[in-house]
Amino acid sequence: xxxxxxxxxxxxxxxxxxxxxxxxxxxxxxxxxxxxxxxxxxxxxxxxxxxxxxxxxxxxxxxxxxxxxxxxxxxxxxxxxxxxxxxxxxxxxxxxxxxxxxxxxxxxxxxxxxxxxxxxxxxxxxxxxxxxxxxxxxxxxxxxxxxxxxxxxxxxxxxxxxxxxxxxxxxxxxxxxxxxxxxxxxxxxxxxxxxxxxxxxxxxxxxxxxxxxxxxxxxxxxxxxxxxxxxxxxxxxxxxxxxxxxxxxxxxxxxxxxxxxxxxxxxxxxxxxxxxxxxxxxxxxxxxxxxxxxxxxxxxxxxxxxxxxxxxxxxxxxxxxxxxxxxxxxxxxxxxxxxxxxxxxxxxxxxxxxxxxxxxxxxxxxxxxxxxxxxxxxxxxxxxxxxxxxxxxxxxxxxxxxxxxxxxxxxxxxxxxxxxxxxxxxxxxxxxxxxxxxxxxxxxxxxxxxxxxxxxxxxxxxxxxxxxxxx
Amino acid sequence: xxxxxxxxxxxxxxxxxxxxxxxxxxxxxxxxxxxxxxxxxxxxxxxxxxxxxxxxxxxxxxxxxxxxxxxxxxxxxxxxxxxxxxxxxxxxxxxxxxxxxxxxxxxxxxxxxxxxxxxxxxxxxxxxxxxxxxxxxxxxxxxxxxxxxxxxxxxxxxxxxxxxxxxxxxxxxxxxxxxxxxxxxxxxxxxxxxxxxxxxxxxxxxxxxxxxxxxxxxxxxxxxxxxxxxxxxxxxxxxxxxxxxxxxxxxxxxxxxxxxxxxxxxxxxxxxxxxxxxxxxxxxxxxxxxxxxxxxxxxxxxxxxxxxxxxxxxxxxxxxxxxxxxxxxxxxxxxxxxxxxxxxxxxxxxxxxxxxxxxxxxxxxxxxxxxxxxxxxxxxxxxxxxxxxxxxxxxxxxxxxxxxxxxxxxxxxxxxxxxxxxxxxxxxxxxxxxxxxxxxxxxxxxxxxxxxxxxxxxxxxxxxxxxxxxx
Lengths: 471, 471
Fold this sequence. Notes:
GO molecular function (chains A, B): catalytic activity; FAD binding
Cofactor (chains A, B): FAD
Distance between the termini of chain A: 9 Å
Domain FAD-binding PCMH-type (chains A, B): 30-217
Helix content of chain A: 25-40%
Protein name (chains A, B): FAD/FMN-containing dehydrogenase
CATH topology of the largest domain in chain A: Uridine Diphospho-n-acetylenolpyruvylglucosamine Reductase, domain 3
InterPro entries (chains A, B): FAD-bd_oxidored_4_C (IPR004113), FAD-bd_PCMH (IPR016166), FAD-bd_PCMH-like_sf (IPR036318), FAD-bd_PCMH_sub1 (IPR016167), FAD-bd_PCMH_sub2 (IPR016169), FAD-linked_Oxase-like_C (IPR016164), FAD-oxidored/transferase_4 (IPR051264), Oxid_FAD_bind_N (IPR006094)
Structural class of chain A: alpha+beta
Oligomer: homodimer
Number of helices of chain A: 14
C-alpha cells in the first residue's frame, strides 16, 4: 500500500531540500498538453542527483509514490497520477546543465532536465548534430525523451532516442544511484540496463543524467516534396530513395491531402507547393557528404521515380529557406489537427509493406462507424502513421464521444491484427495500459511484471504507468 | 541446487525429441576456439521452437541446467560449463532456416541457428546488405551473435548486433515462448525486452528466432590505407573523415606495425601496401550514395589530411580487388596473432579521446612487467582496441604464465580507471565474471542479479555465465 504525501512528510522534504526546490502544485505539473486529464501531487524540483536520491530515499522509507516530471509534453498521461495516494511529483527542470561536450568523440553529457533544443544548440556550437527532432523540442526534456524512447522525424536515419544514448545516470527506487554515464561506444559487460531504463517511463527509476551521441553535420542538406499516386507508390519510392541516397536519407514523411485542407481551413498559414493538391505526397529530407549536392541527388531520384511512374509532381528546395517552407507544412499539421479537434488520434506502427493495406482497411472500418474526416500522416520511413479521425465540417469532437471508443478499438484491432503496434513512439503511460493488456503477448506481460517487481518491489515509481497497479 | 543429466533424464529427452536431435558429446560442443578450456554436457539439437520449449520445460521440471550453444566461436567461455552438475548443451545448429525476407521493408526473419554468412548471402540475393561482419562470420550463428551483442568492423556505421535486430523469439527458462518477432521499426509498448535478451549470453532465455534489419547497398564502396604519425593524428583523421564522408564511413580500423611484422614472420601472406612500414596506419572503408565515387571521396580526404599533417602516406584502392587486399591485411592479423601465441589478449574500449593516452600508458605498464611485444589494433572508430601481448622472438607464451595475470590486471585496471570497459564486444561469459565483479558499479551488479533472479528464478539458464552462481 502506498501512503499519501502528508503535512508531516512535506515538512520532512523541506528539511532535505533547499527552499528553492519547492514549486506550487499547479499546472503545468498537473495537466497534460491536450488538457484531457488532471493530476495531483506535491511538486519538488531537486537540482542535483544527490538531492533526487535524498527525495527518493525519503519516499521509499514512507512508501510514498513518485511521479517523475520532465517536459510535460507526453501524450499518454505518463506524467500524471490522477487517483490514489497523493504522490511526490519530481520535476527535473532545475537539473538543466550540459555537463560536458566532447566534439572529437561526438559525445555530450547532460543533466536529464536539459531541454532538447538546448542539446541541439550545444551540438551545433561544436559543429555537430544531435539528430533527435520532434514538434515539442522547445520544451521536451532529455529525461522524458529517454524515458519514453521518443521518436520524431529523423528515426529513419538516426534511430529513436534509445539509439542516441550511450549511458545513463539513474536513481533507483531505493535511492541508490547507478552511475552508468559511460562515453563508450561498445561495452558488453552485463545486461543492457541502459535500454531497459530507456522507455520504462519512469517506472523503474529516475534518469538524472545521460551521455548522448552526436553525429557529424552533413555537408549538404536539402528536401523535396513529391506527389505520389498512392501509398504503395510512396513505399516503392522509399526503396528507390534507399538505393539512390542510402544512409543520406534523413526523413521520409507521408502527407495526406487532408492535412493541406486543414491548414487551409484553420491555419497556421503555410505556402502550398503544388499547383494541384495531390491526394498523397511525401516530404523527403536528405543530408549528404562533401562532393554531392542535395539538389542533384533529389533531382536524380525524382527523374528515376518519374520515369517509373512513382511520382507525378514535385518540388525540390533550392535553398535552406525553401527547405524550411516544406518542413513548415509537415510541422504545422499537428497544430491544424488540434485546431480542428480530433475525435480520436492514433500512433500506429506497421510492418512497412502493410501500410497501404492498413490505410485502405482503416478507412473502411471508420466509414462503417460513421462519416468522418481522416488525416493520416507520419513517418512512413519507420512505418509509423499518425492516424487521426475528425468530425465532418460543422460538427465538433464533443458530438462523437460515443463513437470515440468504437473508432479507437477498430483501428487498434486492425493494426494489431496486421502485426502492428498501437503505440509506435508515444509510449503506454496511463492512457494505453488497457491496450497493452489487450494486445500484449501474455508471456511478454509476465516478463514486464517480473522486471517491475524485481527493480521496484515497493511499487513507488510512477505507479499505474505502463503496468496497472496490483489490486 | 541444480541436478545433473542422468540416464533417466536422457531417456526422457529421447522420448520428447526425434532421434536426429541427439549429437555426440564431443568437440566442438565442449571446447572453445583457442582450446583453453573443456566443457561437459549432454548435447541436443532441436529443430523447432516447440522442440526447444519442450527441452527447456523438461529441464525446468528437473532443475537441469541448460547451456545454449550457437556457433561456438565465443572467446569468453559463455558456451562451456566446465564444472558442476552435467547440463544439457542445447545446440541451435538444426534451426537454420531463413524464415522470410522482405526487401521492401529491409527486413529478414530467421531461425537463431542460421550462420552469419548465410544471412549476408540472403540479403545480397535481394540487393540488400546485412552489415554485421566479423572474422568468424563463416561459422558464428545468429543466436550467439545476438546473445553476445557481437560487434565487428562495421559498428561505426551500422551499430552492433543489437542495433541490427528488430524482434526476437525467445524460449524463457520456464519453457514458455515470447513471440516477439516483430517487423516494426518503432514499438514503444513496455520495457525493452529485446535489448535485455540481446547481450544476456543465454542466461535469461534462449533466442530461437530473430527479425534482422537490412540496409540498402551503398552505390560505391571503397577503401584506403593511410599512414598516420600517431594515434592522436588517427583520431583527428577520424573526425575529419566524419565531416567529409559522414555516415558514409563504414569502418575505421587502427593497425600497428607489429601486425605487419607478425604477418611477415608467420603469415598468412599478404600484399604490403607501403614502401616503408609506418608505426601506425588506419584502414578506412566507405560506402557512398549514387553520384559520389569512393575514390574521389577518399582522395579528397587524403589531400585535406595530408595538408593538415594527419597522414604521411596512403594507398587508395582503385578496384574491389585492391579493396579486398587492404582488408586481407586487417583480417589476417588475428590469425598471425594466433600463430605467434599471445600471453594475454584484451578487448578494451575507451572514450575515443582517451585512446592515445591508454596506448602510451599501457605500453609503460607492460614494460614495467617485462620485455614483450604488443600488437594493438582494432576498431578505432568505436574506441575498441584489441590489445594483445606477446613474448619476444624465440620465447613462447608458456614461458610467461606467471606474468599473464599481472599483464591482464595492469591493462584492465588502467582501462577501467580511464572510463573504459574490459569487454567491449566479446562479453563476460565465464572468463570475465571476476572482472565484472571487480570493475562493475555495485548498484549495477545488484540490478543484474535482481533481473536474473526475476527472469530465471531456478537459475537453470547458462549458470555461471555473466553472474557467478549463488553459493
